[in-house]
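Annotated sample (chain length 431).
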Amino acid sequence: MGGRTGAALLILGTVLAAASPARASTGTPESGSYAFDPGARTVAAAPGTGGAAGLAAGHSYRSTLTGKGPVYYRLDLDGTSNAYVSATAVPPADAEVSAADGLKVAVQDADGHSCSYDTELFGASRSPHPVTAWGAREIAASGRTACRSAGSYYVVVERAGRAAGTESSPQPWQLELTAATEPPLARPGPTRAPEAWDSASATPPPGTPASRPAGAGFATAPLVGEGAWQTAVRPGQTLYYKVPVDWGQRPAATVELGGTAERGGYTAGALELALFNPVRAHVTDVGVGYDGTQKSAALPPVPPVAYRNRYAARDAVSGMRFAGSYYLVVHLAARVADRLGPGALPLTLRVRVDGEPQAGPGYAGRPSPRDVFGAAGGAGGAGASGDTLLKALAVGGIGTGTVLLAVLGGWTALARRRAAQMRTSAQNPTA
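Output written by the structure step:
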């Protein structure tokens, strides 16, 4: 189909999905549930590298993690691209976990050399909920030889802490895996992180929040932009939103949990807000206790998105390395129900996106998935018209009904013009 028609269909599909009852229901998932990518492929977890299933960039996968040691998956990589992999582990809602339990993800080359290592814990909430760790094979600018050559690499996933023992956690955890690749730059750039950036906390947007149901997983996260957004959260739930952030911009978010008439004691680490980047790597987070009175928490400041941020030591800086959809993930500890009951509580998310969009770094190829790094596309240029309009919808908070009518009208006109064109000449589909 033509580029304009494709953009119209993309927007139409997005609006219809947002308007449908099935889509809206993902904003109030059952406590402890996780919405896996419906297009994910199922792969077996191998106990060693010999039988490791391959993970292809641009795809999502489902698998299972037991407590019997590490499991392995394979990445077949070239010698020029950076590769990223994420694993989201979903324990059963009734699993017993401690603050030191969690998930480990490592990437190793065929000789067992470590390319990266990440551990993410359940933390102070001590609540069984989806936890996401990531790994990478990066072509180091320093010139070190490990993890630079083309070939097979292995993703190693295992439980951390007590959860690694079969006696403490006999139940399997479900896994969602993703892989992405980032091409090299067309021209070499700076290889040091920015020495200074404005670290002042952003002021949350004021005003009455608009209703915006959350997603129950990365794949179902609804798009939001700058503004105030309201939903409800039950103890044990994890909510997902995504925010488009361009090169040169930085997101900021504050979460507010409403009060309740019940007073049943204080729950430490009850409310958590975390920021993940487009490849689902953890950037930063904040937590706050809850006793039934209203509470709020703001993410620590992060720098504007820049390619060279990757050379920083701190996750809160290095994670801001590319444009795209950043994820805001909110969790309310299951233990809140023990003190205040299982009822839903009002939750408001106030989002800012500061800074003017800048040109991308200029890639020598296309990333995979193709749109993972947002408006930069594959060559650091401007985004497609569909992406621009989606951002406008998210930032403006335009009503679904109004947008749907406008899109239907525009799409109908495009379809008529398209039909007239096809009567006179054949048209090739866009890539």
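Annotation: Confidence is low (pLDDT under 50) at residues 1-29, 376-431.
Annotation: The first helix runs from residue 3 to 19.
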